[in-house]
Amino acid sequence: MKKLIVITLFLISINSFAQNKTTSNNYYVVLYTIGETWDTTKHYHEQKYFNEHSAHMSSLRKNKTITIGARYGNTGMIVIEAKDESAAKALVNKDIAIQNKLFKAEVFLFEPFYGGCVKETP
């Protein structure tokens, strides 16, 4: 009888976890590199569509879609929250700088090792 109760509780907890996972957003890493239309003779703020790109990033930050962002080397990186990969790619592709190939963007599922590894910033 004890085994049956333990197994039942275990199955209920797994089902509860699975339901919570499917209803919440996932995290996605977006890696940005310069695209085909980047003009190497100009500074980044002089690039066509750069101001629009900055405005797009600003709106994602204000909406708290971006969890974290940084640059390293020649790569930009953001972590965003989205329902699924298609939704994440749609957010990225709204950027006119992506549409006009100023930047290239790759989207990857980001799975933190432990709950609470990603926290909101003030």
Rg, Å, rounded:
20 Å
> How many structural units, i.e. domains?
1
What's the CATH H-level superfamily name?
Answer: Dimeric alpha+beta barrel
Helix content: 25-40%
Strand order of the largest sheet: 2-3-1-4
Shape descriptor reads elongated
| Beta fraction | 25-35%
> What is the chain-wise order of helices and strands?
HEHEEHHE
Q: Tell me how many strands there are.
A: 4
Describe how the helices and strands are arranged.
Blueprint: H1 2-23, E1 26-34, H2 50-62, E2 66-72, E3 75-82, H3 85-93, H4 96-99, E4 103-110
Antiparallel strand pairs: 1-3, 1-4, 2-3
Q: How would you describe this protein?
A:
By secondary structure, the protein is an alpha+beta fold. The chain has one domain: Dimeric alpha+beta barrel (Alpha-Beta Plaits, 2-Layer Sandwich), CATH 3.30.70.1060. It contains four helices and four strands, in the order αβαββααβ. It has a four-stranded antiparallel β-sheet. Strand 2 and strand 3 (75-82) form a beta hairpin. The longest helix is centred in the first third of the chain and has 22 residues, at 2-23. The termini are far apart. Residues 13-23 have low confidence and may be disordered.
Keywords:
122 residues; alpha+beta; Alpha-Beta Plaits; 4 strands
Short description, anyone?
Helix content is 39%, strand content 26%.
